[in-house]
Design a protein that fits this description.
Order of helices and strands: EHEHEEEHHHHHHEEHEEEEEEEHHH
Distance between the termini: 51 Å
Number of strands: 14
Structural class: alpha+beta
Number of domains: 2
Radius of gyration: 18 Å
CATH class of the largest domain: Alpha Beta
Oligomer: single chain
Number of helices: 12
Length: 265
């Protein structure tokens, strides 16, 4: 085992100072970073633990505005009563992540910062037109997710919270890998005053993306039948050992239909 320095940050400012070291990495739930370190895919000189910073925890709902602290666990998101009332689809999404251990350790901020191409939260934030708040600025979800495992985060920048405006209706469904529970395809649909937004995870060559075909169809009729009538192109979709691009294209339509059914209650 190689040497690594562990730091427990007491505040966001403290964490930012500790992360100034070139080889330092932020540690939240550790669901991705720790396995990467075990397999030597990552070898940071310093780990800066964000999990004990009180300002990064908790969920607040004020009218239609929902704020979720970056260090809030998936289990806390899944079980928060106020969130279930405001945006039940996000609580449902969190309940589908991994297994109980992952849900009680993994955090929304860690997932969003990592931007795994099969992660669930990026689809929710993109479909909801959410804002990712850092210690330096606020970034719209449309501009935040930039590619596979890539985001708009700059060196030393720390996600502090995500902000969501509750839609009129929303739903999320995914076709899960039976081993990892990651999405082979996941679709989040949201209908609000500004129209319909649909985001897809688990399928894109460049990670999470919005589906203009589904948005157009559901903008005209927010029904499962409208979603079922959309034929999604396999271009720019992933093919791997789990599913071909063509199969993923078909699954996008199926998951969208189920997500709309859920959204309509």
């Amino acid at each position: 085992m190689y040497s690594v320095n562990y730091h427990r940050a007491s505040s966001v400012a403290d964490a930012a100072k500790l992360l100034a070291s070139e080889d330092a990495k932020a540690l939240s739930g550790g669901m991705t970073l720790i396995p990467a370190m075990k397999t030597r895919l990552a070898a940071p000189s310093d780990l800066v633990d964000l999990g004990h910073i009180a300002d990064l925890k908790g969920i607040t709902v004020s009218g239609k505005t929902v704020t979720i602290g970056a260090a809030t666990t998936h289990a806390e998101v899944a079980n928060n009563a106020a969130l279930k009332q405001a945006v039940p689809a996000v609580a449902h999404l969190a309940s589908l992540i991994g297994d109980p251990h992952v849900r009680h350790k993994g955090t929304i901020g860690g997932s969003v910062a990592n931007n795994d191409p099969a992660a669930d939260y990026p689809a929710a934030l993109l479909a909801l037109g959410a804002t990712i708040v850092t210690n330096k600025r606020s970034v719209a979800a449309d501009e935040f997710f930039t590619g596979l495992f890539e985001t708009a985060l700059e060196d030393g920048e720390i996600i502090t919270s995500v902000s969501i405006t509750a839609p009129d209706r929303a739903g999320y469904e995914k076709f899960r890998n039976p081993a990892s529970r990651y999405a082979i395809v996941g679709v989040f649909v949201a209908k609000g005053p500004n129209g319909v937004r649909v985001a897809v995870t688990g399928a894109g060559d460049e990670g999470v993306f919005r589906s203009s075909e589904l948005e157009s169809a559901l903008g005209g009729s927010f029904t499962p039948e409208a979603a079922a009538g959309v034929k999604v192109s396999a271009d720019n979709l992933m093919s791997d050992m789990h599913a071909s691009a063509e199969y993923r294209a078909s699954l996008i339509t199926v998951m969208a239909k189920r997500a709309v059914t859920q959204a309509n209650g």
